Amino acid sequence: MVFRTIATTAAILVGLALTGAVAGPQWDPVPVTDHLVPATEDTAIGGVDAEAAEELGAVGAYEVRETAVTIPLDGTAVGGLLRQPVGDDGEVLADRPGVVYVHGAGTGKSTEAFIESATALASAGIVTLVPDKRLDTYTTRDRDYVAMAADYRRSVDLLRTVDGVDAAQVGVYGESEGTWIVPVMQAQDPTIAFTVLVSAPVVPPRQQAAFAVDSYLRNTGVPEQVFRAIPRAVGMQLPGGGFEYADFDVRPWLEEQTAPVLVAYGTADPSMPIEQGARQVIADTAVNGDDAPVTVRYYAGANHGINVPLDGGMHLHPDFARDVATWVQGMPATADAAPRIAGDTPNQLYLASAVPQPRWWGNGDIVVGAVIAGVALLVVGPVVWGAHALVRRTLLRRSSTVAPRLARGLRSSLLGLALGSVATMIALVAYLLAVARLALDYERDDLVVQGGWIVVRLLGVAAAVAAALVIRRVADARAERRAGADVAVARGWPAVLTFWCTLAGSLAVLGTLAYWGVYQLGI
Prior knowledge:
It contains 14 helices and 13 strands. By secondary structure, it is α/β, with parallel strands linked by helices. GO terms for molecular function: carboxylic ester hydrolase activity.
């Protein structure tokens, strides 16, 4: 008997492993083999002599005046914060270049975003404008980067009219998600004098998301089996629809660039393809034969926001604002000056590339629906049986009908199958949430990462054992019936309903678990 149970369990585990293997794509990112080598570790901008560079990039050289402004948009308006360098006479400086900031993902208040960067550039002699992000057209599900570019261009128009600003020297600074917007702005308005792309993903959002998840998981040290979930989660159509912007391609807009581009990355930023992004910007801006000059800088130990640990907190890398200020104010000499690529040596492990699309479970509504339907089925049968038993005891006391029942040992096996399936699903969700927290906090915890995965898989095996016991009990009941015994797998419609609902619900949950890699056997 034990051997039969073990053999059946093994067959179920292999079947679930095969189901998981064929139900969706694998994850096999391509390693980076040709790494960028900066010309020098010094990030200082070339094109001007040392004395001039020190003067042009002198952060703190001027007092900064802050003024709240209102920026009219199509059908609404947003606030903004203008920062202007002020001379010793208390007057704003004349004929200064200007920079408009474009926010990354999430909300962005002008009073909370880019504070160090915008203030530092203003203190070096550049007028900066940080607008509030428009939120009435920006949600997690729906974003239109071309429309957002049109909104941000209103800030460019406004900055050009500010006293002391050289209208011909107004550029745009974008960070992270904002770097998908900035090239659109410059392509649509070639009079934008320059663009600064900070922590630019360059590749479409879906590819960047898969790259970031892969990088975070590697930093966290998760088992190899977990990586299979990346294309299945990122590659599918997310539940509820929307998210069309996930496949937005900025490269056609980069090909239309005409103004100088400064690209900056922190080498401690695991979420961005920091080598691939720089190469792609350089290549795409040269497609039309009239290169937009590109300067690339890598900052040692800097994170996604070009921040490093300083004075007990995270602050802007001390050389970053200096370099941006020198590059902007030294135009046109600094636009294409050597070295083109300088700073810390980047080390991107894998390429960000097209995410494989799930075949059968590519629709997130189906994935979520399978779990909901499975759990609902597991609940329906016992609830109906319980309700029937209550009615039978209270209203049908004199009924001669036989009470519903399951074959000997089947009830406990079905209960174990249902509880095992649900417990494994709950454990998997809890495990993924715990790993996500560690990944986002850049932490490692082998007890959670390795031990948690073992617990999830052991629960999955326990559910498979319960399934094997169900099969054994059913087989035994049928064998007894063939031998002439008055035995049935399930007697009475409530028992029959519970039996089939439990089987169908467990199958749906176990299939989902197999899809997400719980039953991987290296297949």
